[in-house]
Amino acid sequence: MASSQKFSDLSIEEAASKVSHAVPMVDGIRLMLAAIALLAHLIDIPGTVRSSDAMWFLLAGYFVYAALPFAVRTQGRKFFRRKIALWCDVTWYAMLIAVTDPLTTVLFLFFPFAILVASFEHGCKEGRRITIGSVGLYLATGMLAGTTTPDFEWTWLFLRVVFLLSLGLMMAYWGGAEVVYKQRLALLREMNFISNPRFGVDQSIASIMEKCRGFFKANACVLLIHDTDSDIYCMRQTDATDMSRALHAQPLPADMAQPLLPFPADHLVLFGRTSGLTIFGRTRCRLYNERTQQWMTDANGHGERVADLLNTEAYIGAPVNWRRYDGRVYLTSSRDAYGPEDALFLMHTVEQAFRLIEHIDVLDRLASGAAQQERQRIVGDLHDSAIQPYIGLKMGLEALREQARPDNPLAPQIGKLIGMATHTLNEMRQYVTRLKDQHALSGSVLAADIRQLAIRFNEFYGICIEVHIDGELHLNDRLAAEVRQIVHEGLSNIRKHTTAQQGRIAVACASGVLQLEICNANDGSCTRPFMPRSIVTRVESLGGRVRIAHDAGCLTVVSISLPI
Predict the structure, then answer these.
(1) How does pLDDT run across 508-533, given as a tens digit for each residue?
(2) What is the pTM of this model?
(3) Signal transduction histidine kinase subgroup 3 dimerisation and phosphoacceptor domain spans which residues (predicted)?
């Protein structure tokens, strides 16, 4: 447990926010302790008071200090950070004990309050710090009193010190364990959320790798997969600087991949060059057999060679078994060695994650099969109900142009209509071809498609659309198709419901969210507020949000956020 508790500092603010509902209770208990100390002095509970005036002054000060945070937080406002408050508590207790007898005062029992709150709110490390600080301050006040008091019972002082140290360390251990377990449950819940069939297998794998890397404070997460049917190796990698490499599996030659997979396929690997695995003569590399549930040493030296290939000081290697694939996930770190509980939790996390991935893959195959059948039906419907009428319309327009004289004023307009009909007919034929061939619309193709939509919109309707694409769009084909349809509907709304002659489309991907903005200016002739119901319905079905802003300058901005 001790090794895994270093991760309790990973999400300390998140963990604190989850227990924020307990803050008023903590402030109330602090105020109650101050009232108890004041009452104990009033009714003269046994215990030597060295200075009555100083005692009254300190008790009044501590009561005011305890009452202020309680009153401020009752009104919904923050007073100061809880970590600082805990250190202030310990300091107040030490000052109060300094003017009493350290061996008989009941104020000694106030120290566990600060230790308990620190441990269960901020984790094991902060609990240990408060414990050591409390023991140090109490020991200092006791030794100061011992130097000025004849016949001072040093045995009782050190007995209290040992008791406080033991109790504090136990509180820190169990409090830190609770924080770690809550964070692990939060990670597993979040993995269930991000493993959405709509995102696709690649996006789900990349998100899970990044979540694991962040949770374990790893420098990088490397996934090596071996296809046993085709004997092909591929690799995905994510680090703090670039998550996009995990979105696409990169082929890896067998002579480069096999040295990274020297361990038995069902064994967990734990390696560290730092002190975590080398103290007391323990080996640097250990293997865990899941069937026998026993740890063993790496007698072949594979762990050292893999660490050199990964260029790391410590790593965990969890096995991956997924349908016809096997391989390993590596989490690398250059700072701290991981512990056995960290490795076991990663193994269980990877096992659950790839069960979800397998579920997504099955759903994706079912959806692809159903989509293929639907595409074939749509192809037939389009050919009969749309393409054939357009061909007839084009032929009619061409016959009308042949009948019109060259000096007819409608001849240019008829020629323009023929051009639009020809362009639309070609688009429909290309669309039918894409449906037949099952071509996917990737993120890179989406950017070019949006620009082409804007150019065509300007040619047909005279509305100038400015397009901004920020960086690369890493989207799967289904989400890209949905985004294209949203953009098309947004442009149609500008033409139908506004008098705007200019507009703008901005697309960007950041922090796992696609941001899409469609805005237009009406040049002062603002129409009534419009709610694009079709866009809102489509976005909400994708798990996103739509916000519409209108300002006095008749600028309308439709902001769309989609999780990717």
Answers:
(1) 887 778 889 998 876 555 555 667 88
(2) 0.62
(3) 374-438
